[in-house]
Structure formats: structure tokens, C-alpha cells
Amino acid sequence: MPIVHISPTALRHNLEILAHQAGSIDKLAVVLKDNAYGHDTALMSRLCYEAGVRHAVVRDSREASQIAQPYESILLLAQTAPLATLPSHWHIAINSLEALEQFPAGTRIELKIDTGMHRNGIAMQEVERALERVVAHSLVLAGVFTHHRSADGLNSDYFWQEKRFDAVVARVKAFIEAHTLPMPRFHSANSAAAFRTQNHRDMVRVGIALYGLLQMPEVFGVPALRPVLSLWADKIATRDLQAGERIGYDGTAVCGAPMTVSTYDAGYADGLLRLRDGHTHRLSGGERLLGRVSMDNISVESQTSPLCIYDDARTWAASAGTIAYEVVVRIPAHVERRVVD
Predict the structure, then answer these.
(1) What is the number of H-type helices and E-type strands within the chain?
(2) 3-14: b or e for each residue (b if 16 or more CB lie within 10 Å)?
(3) Domains in the chain: how many in total?
(4) Are 69 and 46 in contact, with CB atoms under 8 Å apart?
(5) 101-143 pLDDT per residue, tens
(6) Is residue 300 a contact partner of residue 286, using CB atoms and an 8 Å limit?
(7) Smallest Cα–Cα separation from 323: which of 284, 273, 255?
(8) Residue 300 belongs to a domain with what CATH number?
């Protein structure tokens, strides 16, 4: 079975860059949802807390329960059902007007506003109705936020979504002041938006940049982030093959000359996406992948063991025709995560 190596040095490097962009590490909220993008929620929450981070974002209560450290706040993005007990530092994201009817008085909530992504969130024209329901149900408004749909692109989307959210913030502040309520925190920046401006309101939610896998056009001048995760596999067997012999299912790889080929204990059951036939892919050390990815095996022109399959998930993603997010979140939770520097 493969092993994931996690680099605390790379993580701290990325956090330093992101804290500089946000203005302070106190403004960072690390996104630990979906097993911390495959890096392991419990492990990453500990490493981030030790580095000085005090805010986190997860998917639901199951993930929040995996965080042992005393974070000041944990935002649950998709908790759709009320909980028997709710720790005071857990904030429930509200994605619709109807959701405001589901949580008991005293629940700390954050209103998500749909400023243009049209996935989740309360419509801009419903903001006052949502605030009135917050008051009517005695909920505690801890935050108001939105999510950018294309902050990493060379287009105008980032700017008009920010303008829309500016207008929402003004309306919320007017309501809060009129009802003499505590002022909530406001946040819109995700990883990409962190590098579009240094005016980040109260918080910056960092996900893919935290893990060193952010991809943006060079014009944005993003500093060199370092991938935190690398995937390694052990050798199972080695054989010498002659020119013309074929490797793997359907024999899609043909030896052009005599070569030494080894199989390694990683496959698509371990989250390793299959690549298209005929595509030449080289591993992080330059070794050539041969034939198809099997359920539990890959064949490589190498004898090295252990072998680094990738030390930057973006390379495997490019060969698979997808994004780095998909590559790392597919690594099963049962695969060992080992802290290595």
C-alpha cells in the first residue's frame, strides 16, 4: 500500500506567505474539509494550530469532531441538520432561507450570500429577510460571507463579485446598527482571492494554497508555494523485458528496447487516477510510467524502492486531464500519512 508523506516545512512556508497576504496569521482560516484535501484533517489541524492558526473551515460536524485543538472558530459549510449539542466555537453556514428554520435559538450561524456563483447561498435580494429571521429565531449572527467563482482567472468576475459583496456588507451593517446587535465578521477571500488584493476584510479562507497546489496565471505574481503532500510506493516485483514485449492490461505499453520494469503497490484503489492510453507520463524523478494504472499496481521503468509517484499532484492532474484537487482528495483515508521533513 502506498504512503503519503506530509512536509511541515512546506506547510509553514505556505502559511508565512498566506499570512503576509492576509495581513496577519490571525486572519487565516484553514480549510480542512474532505480530509483536509486528502492530507488528513486531524493531522493538518494539529500542524496548523501549532503554526499559530486559530480558525478552521470544514464540511460538517463529523469533520469538526476530528479537530482536537481549541480553535477559536470552526465554520461548518454544509451542516444541514441540527445537532444535539453544538460547541460554542462551531459556526453553522446558512445556505438558504429555509435553513434558518432548522437550528435552535442560540446557534452561532454565518450567512452565505450568493453574489454570482449560484451554487449555495442566500440571494442578494433576500438578505434583509434572512436577517429578520435571524432575529426572530434568536440565532447568533457570527459572520456573513460569499465565495468567488473565478478569482483565479483573467476576467472581471472577481471585481464585480467583490462590488456586490461590498453592497451586502453595507446593508448588513445598517441592519445590525439599527437593531443594536453585535457586528459579525465579513469574509469573501479564498486562496486565489488572497493574491488579488490585500484588503481582505476580517478573514481569508485558505484551502488549495495552504497545500501548495494553487494554480494562477503568472501575471498575478503568486509567490512559490510548496506542495505539502507527496505519494510514495514500494516495489513489488522486477523483471527484465525484451524489445517488442507488452506491459499491463491490453498490452498498451510496448518495450522499444530491452528494459528493466518494476511494479509498485499503488493503483486506482488508492486514488491514483488512470491516465489516457498513449500518454507518456514521467514520475517526479523522471521515471517512465508504463501501461495502464491497475487497481493496486503501476508499472514503472525503475528499480528504486520506495519510489515517489508524485511530489506535486498538479503533474499527475495534468496527465489525467483534471485538477490537483481531485487527485489529492481521492487518496483514501486508510492510506498512512507520515510526517516527513
Answers:
(1) 8, 19
(2) bbbbbbebbbbb
(3) 2
(4) yes
(5) 999 999 999 999 999 999 999 999 999 999 999 999 999 999 9
(6) no
(7) 273
(8) 2.40.37.10
Residue 188 is predicted with a pLDDT of 97
| Residues 248 and 184 both lie in one domain | no
pLDDT tens-digit profile of 191-200? Answer: 999 999 887 8
Q: Which of 33, 71, 158, 211 is catalytic?
A: 33
SS3 call for 310:
strand
Secondary structure class of 204 (helix, strand, coil)? strand
Any domain includes 51: yes
Whole domain around residue 39: which residue ranges? 8-216
Q: Is 249 a catalytic residue?
A: yes
At a CB cut-off of 8 Å and minimum separation 6, what does 325 contact? 37, 208, 213
Residues contacting residue 258 through CB under 8 Å, at least 6 positions apart: 240, 241, 242, 243
Question: Contact 245/255 with Cβ under 8 angstroms?
Answer: yes
Please write the tens of the pLDDT for every residue from 234-263: 999 999 999 999 999 999 999 999 999 999
Tell me if 324 sits within 8 A of 208, measured CB to CB: yes
Asked about 33 being catalytic, the answer comes back as yes
* CATH code assigned at 64: 3.20.20.10
Out of 71, 158, 249, 268, the active site residue is 249
Residue 124 lies in a domain: yes
Is residue 2 in some structural domain?
no
| Gap between the Cα atoms of 158 and 152, Å rounded | 8
Tell me: do 119 and 267 sit in the same domain.
Answer: no
Distance from C-alpha of 320 to C-alpha of 232, rounded to nearest angstrom: 18
> Which of 25, 28, 18, 15 lies closest to 203, judged by CA?
28
